[in-house]
Amino acid sequence: MELDSLKDIWKEQDQHVDRHPDNSNEILSMLGKKSQSPVAKLRRNLRWELVAVIITYAFAIIYYLTEKHGRYWEVSILFTLVAVGFGFYYYHKDKLLKSMQCVESEVKSNLQHQLGTLEKYVRFYFIAGTLLMPFLYYLTGLIILYKTPSFQLSGETLGNRAQPMLNAVREHGLFTEFLIGGVVVTAGMYFLNKWYLNKLYGQHIKYLKDLLRQMDEI
Questions:
Q1: How many domains is the chain built from?
Q2: Could you read off the pLDDT of 153-185 as tens digits, one per residue?
Q3: Distance CA 171, CA 173 (A)
Q4: 95 lies in which domain range?
Q5: Residue 90 and residue 57: Cα distance in Å, rounded?
Q6: CB within 8 A of 186, min separation 6: which ones?
Q7: pTM, entire model
Q8: What is the C-alpha separation between 6 and 39, in angstroms, rounded?
Q9: Angle separating helix axes 2-15 and 203-217, nearest 10 degrees
Q10: 34 burial class (0-12, 13-18, 19+ CB within 10 angstroms)?
Q11: What does the pLDDT look like over 183-207, one tens digit per residue?
């Protein structure tokens, strides 16, 4: 197994430092394998996730930009800002994973530090992704309701700009369903995010943590 091989190399490095000066390079090589190392799998999953996000957000942006001759262009701008934010996140996360494949010294200590940073990235993504969903849901819904002609005709309070928009929304027949839908979407996103992140990143992070823990036992 890859884990056993890495343990053997690490043990040899501790016992025969003078006789095997290049063992750190062997460990580096194992960590940097394209198809087998957990770090390589993490980078590959990150790229697939980025492609999925680009396709999804591009579709949403184009849809709201062209729907009803661009009536809901504000929603397109909203999704564009979120997509740009995700882009920064993916860039820094990929940069971190790339550095984990390019360890040049003190393999174990570097890996421990970088693994802790990676866990923080994943935790932030989980929290932000879960909270972002109800924000996008409600804000998009309000924009669509506000700019829908039938809603504008039925809600006289829209003609009076001094009144809070919330009062106008409350008069709409779908207001209760709209609120309940947001709660359902948020709860569903929470569990989906939890499963999704564990599938793409959690199991590989656990593997690396087990690897470091077993190094301590050697």
A1: 1
A2: 444 444 444 345 555 555 555 677 778 888 898
A3: 6
A4: 2-217
A5: 15
A6: 130, 133, 134, 137
A7: 0.62
A8: 14
A9: 30
A10: exposed
A11: 898 899 899 989 989 888 888 888 8
